[in-house]
């Protein structure tokens, strides 16, 4: 079983810019996922 393709955005473009590439690969049978980095805003009191 082949390993999935993992797209790590952030250096050249944001995750949203890689969605077309992800869809292109999935449509052709390649297991692909784009990692979305999310942060939580915290307040200091």
Describe this structure in words.
- With 45 residues, this protein is α+β, with helices and mostly antiparallel strands.
- Helices cover 20% and strands 13% of the residues.
- The chain contains one helix and two strands; from the N terminus they run E-H-E.
- The chain has one helix at residues 19-27, and strands at residues 5-7, 32-34.
- The protein has a two-stranded parallel sheet with strand order 1-2.
- Helix 1 (19-27) links the parallel strand 1 (5-7) and strand 2.
- The longest helix is centred in the middle third of the chain and has 9 residues, at 19-27.
- The radius of gyration is 14 Å and the shape is globular.
- The model has no long low-confidence stretch (mean pLDDT 78).
Q: Structural class, judged by helices and strands? A: alpha+beta
Report the major sheet. Answer: 2 strands, parallel
How do the helices and strands follow one another from N- to C-terminus? EHE
Mean pLDDT across the residues is: 78
Instruction: Walk across the major sheet and give the strand order.
Output: 1-2
General form: globular
Please state roughly what percent of the residues sit in beta strands, choosing from under 5%, 5-15%, 15-25%, 25-35%, 35-45% or over 45%: 5-15%
Which regions have little confidence, pLDDT < 50, spanning 5+ residues?
none
- Rounded to the nearest angstrom, the distance between the terminal CA atoms is 51 Å
How many helical stretches? 1
Total DSSP E strands:
2
């Amino acid at each position: 079983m082949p390993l999935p393709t993992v797209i790590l955005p952030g250096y050249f473009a944001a995750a949203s810019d890689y969605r077309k590439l992800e869809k292109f690969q999935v449509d052709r049978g390649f297991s692909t996922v784009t990692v979305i980095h999310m942060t939580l805003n915290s307040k200091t009191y």
